[in-house]
Write a structure and sequence with these properties.
The structure holds two protein chains of two kinds. Helix content of chain A is 22%, strand content 32%. Chain A is an alpha+beta fold. Chain A has one domain (3-83). Chain A has a five-stranded antiparallel sheet with strand order 3-2-1-4-5. In chain A, strand 2 (16-19) and strand 3 (25-26) form a beta hairpin. Chain A starts with a strand and ends in a 10-residue tail after the last helix. In chain B, the strands form four sheets. In chain B, strands 16, 17, 18, 19, 20 and 21 form a six-stranded mixed sheet that branches. In chain B, strands 1-2-5-4-13 form a five-stranded antiparallel sheet. Chain B has a five-stranded antiparallel sheet with strand order 3-14-15-12-11. In chain B, 38% of the residues lie in helices and 17% in strands. By secondary structure, chain B is of the alpha+beta class. The radius of gyration of chain B is 23 Å and the shape is globular. In chain B, helix 16 (509-526) packs across helix 18. Chain B is built from 18 helices and 21 strands. The chains are: A alpha+beta, B alpha+beta. The interface between A and B is medium-sized, with 28 and 42 residues.
């Protein structure tokens, strides 16, 4: 069974974050609160407070799988958002 | 050698930064919502991408001084993650700035007469041009004064600040089209008429994205002094009649297509005629001369075109000879050369440069190329005024920077958009595909055997990697949750411009590099003497390629 999670970007850094059980935000997808599809809209509504206090922008729901205690977003886009670019940057000449 | 800000420019940019600083502060305090702030940040080049903000900085027609490049390096080092990405609009993007740092970044840019104005939004974007402008042997005259005139005319122009959609202008004066004018909203080619007068051939309605078109010629010859009045006419018609009801049909190419070239041209000409009593935009030569003076050719040394030391090095050093043959181009001035700096080392992200590399290239520009350089729309750099006698020393310095890969216009000189590794709109990754192709074809001997070929990769239908005009175009899509790649063949953005045709069903990510290799091998098997990949494809059509490509699937 797949679950839902709320993700957003922080206002300050633009960093990818996931909503935690306490209503906070973590950059680790495994910290994110997972809910059923039926509970998803309620979870998303609860992100409004963080939009209002300028912590995050543009929250939305993603679909995730949970296996062995690890969370994995279903879509590749969200997997890449959760882990960062799949390429190495050039950091020195 | 390049435009210098006057007091008006300086004031305008400074005021703009101050306004933006205030807007950011209000956003951080919650006085502006994201909906209110978004158009304001976009007007200053700041996007929100997948992992972070992205700041796009304008490099007008790709021309940079060494001082400006050092500033770009400083920004990469102090405000980003130590690198920048040069784009197909000859701009640079930073992938990791913090929102609250962006006003400081814009202040830094203003110090060196740069900005991020109109690098996003439904306005005229960076005017692009030939990276060899002013030094090319095949140009009628330097196009950059006209790029600058257009840039000034369309920067914060009140009438054209809310166009139906973004707008892109390219200008060239050379026989070889290195500015892709056929795939721009407006393409301007400087031409001579039968009377020997210099003017513009005007193309309108080219573009890529989800509905690609080659631009239509609406004027074979426009007198130079009429340029702004004619541009105004085009933009007025577009502003009035361009579609605002559908984002995907809002570019001028759709208007040209829906009206038909003839009717569209009639409307432009009517608007142009109606503005003829307004002489304010008639370029009387005074302003033109003022702008042109900034681009006065440098005082070149009187040198022989022979360079025996270079010839001797090339004779005994195959690596240098390869670089000389591939990356160095004839200059209009005897004893000088145009040097392409490849930002496509094997297996690296196309167009990326570290802060250290930028600083080092700035030093090389000072030492060897009169303190200036250019960014190309193919995501490379150019040192335009190098004395031939300095080529060996310059090559050695570039080798040390990993910037001397002798692959210009070869299969590893790939144009790629950032794709799903960075971009909010992307549906698949682009850079890793470019890297894998680059690794597969890393052998330079093989690259030279394959000859001129252009591979363009886009990570979504918006086509920022210009896949439609790649000899081989690759479009990344998401299909059933997996990346898949459509291949098009036969595209070109040069004088023989055309939109590539899709060859067949898409390939899975793990198969796409094999597919490219199959296409290349097919070409090698059936090419005739002197044919490039594109020539062979145009001679034989899709079938031989298709048969080989899908035989295994």
């Amino acid at each position: 069974m797949n679950y839902r999670m709320v993700t957003a970007n922080t206002l300050k850094e633009g960093a990818v974050v996931f909503m935690t059980a306490s209503g906070g935000w973590s950059q680790n997808v495994n910290d994110g609160k997972t809910v059923t599809a039926e509970e998803a809209d309620t979870l998303l509504e609860s992100a409004a407070a963080s939009v209002a206090d300028c912590s995050i922008v543009a929250p939305y729901l993603i679909e995730v799988e949970v296996a062995g205690g690890k969370v994995r977003p279903v879509r590749l886009r969200e997997q890449i958002r959760a882990k960062g670019p799949t390429i190495q940057f050039r950091t020195s000449a | 050698m390049m435009y210098q800000y006057d007091e008006i420019d300086k004031t305008l940019v400074k005021e703009r930064v101050d306004q933006y600083r205030d807007q950011v502060a209000r956003r951080m305090r919650g006085e502006l919502s994201e909906e209110e702030f978004r158009p304001l940040r976009l007007r200053n080049g700041l996007y929100m991408q997948l992992h972070a903000y992205m700041l796009r900085v304008a490099i007008p027609y790709g021309l940079l001084s060494s001082t400006q490049l050092r500033k770009l390096a400083l920004i990469a080092r102090e405000y980003d993650r130590g690198y920048g990405h040069f784009t197909t609009r000859q701009n640079i993007q930073y992938n990791w700035p913090n929102l609250e740092d962006t006003p400081d970044i814009l202040d830094h840019l203003a110090e060196v007469e740069m900005n991020a104005i109109q690098t996003s939004g439904n306005v005229n974007r960076n005017v692009t041009s030939d990276p060899y402008a002013g030094v090319a042997r095949d140009e009628i005259e330097d196009p950059r004064p006209y790029c600058e005139i257009v840039r000034q005319f369309l920067t914060l122009h009140p009438e054209f600040s809310f166009l139906p959609r973004k707008f892109k202008v390219a200008v060239t004066a050379a026989e070889t089209d290195r500015a892709a004018i056929n795939v721009h909203d407006i393409g301007l080619r400087i031409v001579k008429n039968d009377a020997g007068e210099v003017g513009f051939k005007v193309l309108v309605g080219g573009g890529l994205g989800r509905t690609p078109f080659i631009g239509k010629v609406i004027r074979d010859f426009l007198p130079k002094e009429e340029l702004l009045r004619y541009l105004q006419a085009i933009l007025r018609v577009y502003n009035m009649e361009g579609r605002r009801d559908n984002l995907f049909k809002a570019r001028i190419k759709i208007l040209v297509h829906e009206l038909g070239t003839e009717r569209f041209t009639e409307k432009i000409e009517a608007e142009y005629e109606a503005s003829k009593s307004d002489t304010r935009l008639l370029m009387d030569g005074i302003e033109e001369d003022r702008i042109r003076a900034f681009f006065t050719p440098p005082t070149y040394e009187s040198l022989s075109d022979d360079a025996p030391d270079v010839d001797a090095e090339a004779a005994g050093n195959p690596a240098f000879a390869d670089w000389l043959n591939r990356n160095v181009v004839a200059h209009k001035q005897p004893g000088y050369a145009i040097v392409n700096i490849s930002l496509k080392p094997m297996g690296e992200a196309p167009g990326d440069a570290t802060a250290e590399q930028m600083d080092a290239v700035a030093d090389l520009a000072d030492q060897y190329s009169l303190g200036h350089l250019r960014v190309t729309h193919r995501q490379n750099l150019v040192l335009a005024d190098v004395r031939k006698q300095d080529l060996v020393a310059l090559w050695k310095a570039l080798v040390a920077l990993d910037f001397a890969t002798p692959n210009i216009e070869r299969i590893t000189d790939i144009i790629s958009c950032p794709g799903l590794d960075y971009c909010n709109l992307a549906t698949a990754r682009s850079i890793p595909v470019a890297q894998r192709i680059s690794q597969r074809f890393a052998d330079m001997k093989r690259q030279y055997d394959i000859g001129e070929i252009r591979i363009n990769i886009s990570g979504c239908i918006n086509a920022c990697g210009h896949h439609h005009v790649g000899h081989i175009g690759i479009l990344g899509l998401e299909k059933n949750g997996e990346e898949s790649y459509q291949i098009t063949l036969g595209g070109s953005s040069d004088v023989d411009a055309d939109i590539g045709k899709r060859i067949g069903p898409a390939f899975a990510s793990e198969d796409v590099v094999d597919a490219v290799e199959t296409l290349v091998n097919t070409y090698l098997d059936i090419r005739q003497d002197g044919e490039r990949f594109l020539d062979t494809y145009r001679r034989v059509g899709q079938d031989p390629f298709k048969e080989r490509l899908y035989a295994a699937y």
